[in-house]
Design goal:
37% of the residues are buried. The longest helix has 12 residues. By secondary structure, this protein is mainly β. Strands 42, 43, 44, 45, 46, 47, 48, 49, 50, 51 and 52 form an eleven-stranded antiparallel sheet that branches. Strands 10, 12, 13, 15, 18, 20 and 21 form a seven-stranded mixed sheet that branches. It has four helices and 52 strands.
């Protein structure tokens, strides 16, 4: 897609030159001249389940080729010819379909440019029915909604900049169709948004898409339910279509994956069964694009009302639009479960149950316990049972559980639910039906980057991480080195499971990750805690900067599991060091030259060592003056947005930049401005020759233009300097900025 857009832009830029030379240039080698183009006589061909052949026509002014992509089944379609030049008849042949399921594929007809390769593509959708009727277009529209009842605006939440959740903005609803009179919507962690429209440039069905609003699946445990579609007794063969889109922030590949997004059907809104659907996936053009998905199904028994539920395994990744239910030729056989309690009693069925509804799990194994309940597992998944009291079961016990389903920290769980009056309902009913043993699986070991990644894609899984334990009251957090945002959080540990004497020590946690709170804490049900026996040496900060005048700054060294003395040495006589306990004082002599001076401080403890880079700027030429911005002394409220700061003649202008959600803010923690990925800062007002930054945390790559930036110091000569943080997560904490400028 990108190549095609660039190529067309390039051609457009040459149009003037093309006109000037039209009289003397020969025709392009392509038939008829001009850009390679291709057209097809139809966009869909349908077969019955019998062995058949059909044709369609290609019209082209170029060499072309055909590629086949299978959505359901593989290798069942024969296409001849597979390449050619100019106009042609293409023959399609299929063998007998005895699989019992509708098969589908896409035939891509591609015009080839002699220099740039693939240029123009047309798609022909191929389907083969599982019976004697070909898969045809949808019939009567029973229900449809483009969710454009009223345009959504990002003006909700405490900041006034958030998109509305479904229950905050019922005006989005726009149900149409003969069966839609009593349709309502319920949702969890789902919002209505008017960005990334389905009819934009990144849509493969934009000609028929509605655009405007769409349904965005946010935090884990999300669901969107269409309630009360009225059906007639003879409406058993149905077709469901919807626009679908995947865009997980920071992902390198956003090709839609059907196994990550689910459709469920119900006759009562509590007991659900999942159905499959077909969606064309072309890795070359599907990256982060809208396209249509289709589910053809036959109800074995038609209910008076039908409920449709959409769920995503990912947080903040999927969107849907243009949902439509029509009569059709039928397909996969669907039997809707009975009763208010999930038939089958599996964990997967309980997870699929709407919040506030009843469910039951017939048999599962206890795999973890904590001071508020336990985690259980069966062949279909894992589920938390929150009893609000110390677990009375043991790991390995076989249990049956029934009760109310609720969501917390992005995941479903059994829990007592608070009613409108504030009273809690009954706790989950737990019955031990047997005992046994359980061997924990090999944990997924998470480093700092892995902990940060978990925040955007939480899942219930067995993990391991190592970091410094910080105990504060009833909170047991673990700071993992290298994590820019995430912290481990041991949730409700059993009495005596954590020795208070371990506060400040390096520990290794093994347990079950059970969700995220505060967008920071990885909640962990503790299974095993071990203290580290290996000596560890850390230093803070990892870089120092000095002005040309020189001065003193300190490094703090922290040593675990060792009694070795801390030592330090400098590789440059410009920087001297003195050690007092775990504090290293670095003294920089005055720099009388115009050149920057760099060095390295090596901190040692026995065989361990860490390095700290040091940079001192050169002495500016001519008269200069200094302006200091000490943010801790400027009277900001905690979490206050910082936009413009001025100390004549220098002005600092902070901006959200490319970050979609976070703008620069002052926080008491770290007493500085948190500068998030993509945020920008403009420094201007005089001829600036040096800028020094003091950080209490620095994790992101920093870019400054023009001039040079190294280890927190910018040097150059400019009246305006731009500062930008890179990356997709994490932040810098800037406590002070010192600007030197020419008078």
């Amino acid at each position: 897609m990108i190549r095609k857009l660039l190529s067309k832009s390039f051609i457009a830029s040459l149009m003037v030159a093309a006109v000037s030379f039209a009289a003397c240039e020969k025709d392009d080698d392509q038939k008829g001249g001009g850009n390679p183009e291709i057209a097809v006589s139809t966009t869909s061909v349908s077969f019955t389940n019998a062995e058949e052949s059909q044709t369609f026509q290609i019209t082209s002014n170029a060499d072309w080729k055909i590629e086949i992509e299978y959505s359901v089944g593989d290798g069942w379609l024969t296409v001849t010819p597979m390449s050619g030049n100019g106009d042609a008849t293409v023959n399609l042949s299929v063998p007998t379909n005895d699989t019992g399921a509708v098969r589908s594929a896409v035939v891509k007809c591609i015009a080839m440019h002699p220099e740039y390769g693939k240029w123009d593509t047309k798609r022909v959708n191929i389907s083969q029915s599982a019976n004697e009727k070909p898969v045809g277009p949808a019939g009567d529209v029973l229900y449809s909604d483009n969710f454009d009842g009223q345009l959504a605006e990002a003006k909700y939440g405490t900041s006034g900049t958030s998109w509305p959740f479904v229950d905050q903005f019922p005006e989005f609803a726009n149900p149409q169709g003969t069966a839609a009179a009593n349709v309502t919507y319920t949702a969890t962690n789902v919002s209505i948004r008017a960005n990334s429209p389905s009819n934009g440039n990144y849509s493969l069905y934009k000609d028929s898409a509605s655009g405007n609003n769409n349904v965005f699946f946010g935090g884990a445990g999300n669901m969107f339910v269409i309630n009360g579609i009225a059906l007639a007794a003879d409406q058993s063969n149905l077709q469901l279509t919807f626009g679908r889109y995947r865009s997980l922030f920071g992902a390198s590949d956003n090709t839609f994956v059907a196994s990550e997004f689910h459709i469920w059907l119900s006759k009562n809104g509590t007991a659900w069964t999942e159905i499959s659907y077909e969606t064309p996936v072309d890795a070359a053009s599907e990256y982060g694009t809208w396209n249509l998905a289709t589910a053809d199904f036959t109800l074995t028994e038609v209910p008076e009302t039908l409920y449709i539920k959409f769920t995503s395994d990912l947080a903040s990744s999927h969107r849907i639009d243009d949902v439509k239910l029509s009569t059709g030729n039928g397909g996969q056989s669907v039997t809707l479960p009975e009763g208010a309690v999930i038939v089958g009693g599996t964990i997967a069925a309980a997870i699929a149950t709407a919040d506030g509804s009843e469910a039951a799990v017939d048999e599962a194994t206890v795999i973890g316990i904590y001071n508020k309940g336990f985690l259980m597992e069966d062949a279909t998944g894992k589920l938390l049972v929150y009893t609000n009291e110390t677990a009375t079961v043991s790991v390995g016990d076989k249990v049956s559980v029934s009760g109310t389903i609720a969501s917390y920290a992005g995941f479903k769980q059994f829990a007592a639910v608070k009613d409108a009056s504030g009273e809690y309902g009954a706790a989950p009913a737990v019955t031990v039906i047997g005992s046994g043993s359980f061997t924990q699986p090999a944990p997924e070991v998470l480093d700092g980057a892995g902990m940060d990644a978990y925040l955007s894609a939480p899942a219930v899984k067995y993990i391991e991480y190592t970091g410094t334990l910080v105990i504060s009251g009833n909170y047991y957090n673990v700071e993992v080195e290298g994590a820019s945002k995430a912290k481990g959080s041991v949730a409700y540990p059993l009495e005596g499971a954590i020795d208070p004497a371990l506060n400040g020590q390096v520990v290794t946690i093994k347990g079950y990750a059970i969700g995220v709170t505060g967008t920071v804490y990885v909640n962990t049900m503790l299974v095993e805690l071990a203290t580290s026996s290996e000596p560890i040496l850390t230093v803070t900060p990892q870089s120092l900067s000095f002005s040309y005048e020189g001065g003193e700054k300190s490094i703090t060294a922290t040593l675990f599991n060792s009694t070795d003395a801390i030592q330090a040495e400098s590789d440059n006589a410009q920087f001297s060091v003195a050690v007092a306990g775990n504090v290293i004082t670095v003294t920089a002599a005055a720099n009388e030259t115009a050149d920057n001076i760099s060095g390295t401080i090596t901190v040692k403890a026995g065989a361990l060592s860490q390095t700290v880079s040091v940079l001192q700027t050169g002495k500016p030429s001519g008269d200069s003056a200094v302006v200091e911005f000490d943010f801790a002394a400027m009277g900001y409220e905690n979490a206050e947005d910082v936009v413009t700061v001025e100390k004549a003649p220098i002005t600092l202008t902070f901006d959200k930049g490319s970050n979609k959600s976070s703008s620069p803010k002052y926080y008491n923690t770290g007493t500085g401005i948190r500068f998030y990925s993509g945020n920008t800062l403009k420094i201007e007002g005089a001829n600036i020759i040096k800028i020094e930054f003091t950080y209490t945390q620095t994790t992101n790559e920093v870019t400054m233009t023009p001039g040079e930036y190294t280890n927190g110091v910018w040097t150059g000569s400019a009246s305006s300097v731009d500062y930008t943080t890179g990356g997709t997560s994490g932040h810098e904490r800037i406590s002070k900025i010192v600007v030197t400028y020419e008078k």
